[in-house]
Structure formats: C-alpha cells, structure tokens
Specification:
Blueprint lengths: L4 E5 L6 E3 L10 E5 L2 E2 L3 E5 L2 E4 L8 E6 L18 H58 L1 H28 L25 E2 L13 E4 L4 E5 L4 E4 L18 E2 L3 E2 L6 E3 L4 E2 L5 E2 L6 E3 L1
Parallel strand pairs: 8-9, 12-15, 13-16, 14-17
Antiparallel strand pairs: 1-7, 2-6, 3-4, 3-7, 5-6, 9-10, 10-11
Helix pairs in contact: 1-2
Length: 288
C-alpha cells in the first residue's frame, strides 16, 4: 500500500520529525499528538515537521496526508487550452484521495478485527474462570481427585525438567527470560543474535553490562551503570578502509564524562536546551 502517514513516539526533546509521503499542497499535511490534531508546528523544509515544543516522552505522533477533496485542482471549459500540468494535478489529486481512503479502510478493518479478538479473549477468560471454579469444587469433594492432581503436577514438573534439559541440546526457542547462574560457553562458528532496536526502545531500567545494537546510530552499545555508550566498531570506510570515526552533532541527553578522562568530538556540536554535559575537574572536552 502507498505510504500516506508516518508515526513516531516522542522523547520529550526532539522537535524535528520527517515524513516520506508526497503531497500537492502544504495544507494537506496534518499532524496529531495522542490522537488530537495540532497546529503548533511549522515546516522546517519540504519533508520535515518542526514542533514549537517537543512532544512529551511517550507521546504518539502521527504525520499524515489528507488531500483536499472539496474541489478539483483544475477546471476545464469549452474552447480553453488544456495543459499537461493541470491534467497531472487532477489525476494526482484523485490518486492521493484513493490511497488515503484505502489506508483508512484497512485501518478500520484492523480495528474491527482487534475488537472481535478482544471479545473472544474475554469469552475465553470467562470460560477459564468457570473451569477453575469447577476444578476447585471437584477437588474439595474428592480427596482421590486431589491426590491425582498432585500426581499430575509432579509428572508435569518432571516433564518440564526433562524439557529444559533437552531443549539446549536439540535446539529451539525459549520464550521469556533465561537466567544462567554460571558461565555460558559457545563453541560454534556461526553467530549469536543480540537485541536490536532504536534508541527509544532501550530498556527503561537497564543493568550494568547489558549490550544491544542501536539502529538509530547503527552501532553496538553497552550500559556502564550510568549511561549507554558505543562499543566496538571503531573507524569505518569504504571496502576494508578504517578511516572515518563518526559522532553525532547534537547532545540530547545529560552526560557526565568519566573522571580523569578526556574526550574529543568533531564539530559543530549542539547541546540541546536543558541538557547538561558535566566535565570533571582535570578532564577536557575538545571539539575540533
């Protein structure tokens, strides 16, 4: 389907958000925050919205196209000349309206499907509650049934223990958190998958030593106990070259340099309003 909208999640500091859909007039560009239309923005350029104030952290941002359908772009009269540009504008207007209608219909269908699924889940939960009540009554009425249930639970526990022992040997997928108290050794020569996500998808409460691949900065990063920082990688370049060491141009999050360490950045570098970079005594930050 054609792209007629772009969505983002606010982080409380970013004001510039780009969009990828074409449009006929700037008045066809609409913006909403948490489902409410807003006009508190300007166009920084032809494909970028700049908010007057950064949307709050976690705010649902939607930038979309709503082509004017109250009148056609060009009207032709008997004896008048017909220009290709006018015809193209009329056809483009019709195309854009059709794309937006199709996307709206698909979204509406998805909402209806979700509502049906939620209703089915509610019915399932009700049935489960009823079944649990019946099981409780049966257990109270029959000591033999309780004994059988205990035996079944023991058998299930034994089966789970056997499965947990066999799964790593046979291969497969474990859903949930796996905690290993000890050393994990891998002897293969293929790869290991680590979490991949954007900056906004970082863990809300990270622990020291966590690592992931950040798709926003296209780098591996690790949490050192106070902040996320890049790991590995080093300089990059074409082919096997290792010439260029890249850094961002905007500081968007408070940062404290490590004591007795110096830092260097390629400028220009902008520190966003309200963001603080702390340089310990005896340390230096050089921007070249």
């Amino acid at each position: 389907m054609a792209v007629t909208e772009n969505t983002y999640t606010g982080n409380g500091s970013t004001v510039l958000y780009s969009f990828t859909f074409p449009y006929l007039a700037t008045t066809d560009i609409k913006v909403s925050i948490n489902g409410t239309l807003t006009t508190a923005y300007t166009l920084a350029n032809a494909t970028t919205v700049q908010f007057n104030t950064a949307p709050a952290n976690g705010a649902a941002i939607r930038i979309y196209r709503s082509t004017d359908d109250t009148a056609i772009k060009a009207t032709f009269f008997p004896g008048s000349s017909i220009r290709a540009a006018d015809l193209n504008d009329d056809f483009t207007q019709a195309l854009y309206i059709a794309q937006e209608t199709a996307n709206f219909a698909a979204s509406t269908d998805a909402s209806a499907i979700e509502a049906t699924a939620n209703a089915a889940l509610a019915n399932s939960n009700t049935a489960l509650t009823t079944a649990n009540t019946a099981a409780t009554t049966a257990n109270s009425a029959s000591a033999a049934a309780a004994t059988a249930q205990t035996s079944a639970n023991n058998a299930q526990a034994s089966a789970n223990t056997a499965l947990s022992t066999m799964l790593p040997l046979a291969g497969g997928t474990i859903t949930g958190n796996l905690v290993v108290n000890g050393t994990v050794s891998m002897t293969g020569t293929s790869f290991i998958d680590i979490p991949v996500g954007t900056t906004a998808q970082r863990p809300a409460a990270p622990n020291s030593g966590q690592i992931r691949f950040n798709t926003d900065i296209v780098q591996y990063e690790g949490y050192n106990g106070t902040a996320w920082s890049s790991i590995g990688g080093g300089a990059t370049g074409g082919g096997a070259d290792r010439v260029f060491q890249e850094n961002d141009q905007t500081v968007t999050t408070n940062y404290t340099m490590t004591t007795n360490r110096n830092a260097v950045s390629a400028g220009p570098v902008t520190v966003n309003s309200g963001v603080t970079v702390t340089i310990p005594s005896g340390s230096a930050w050089v921007i070249v």
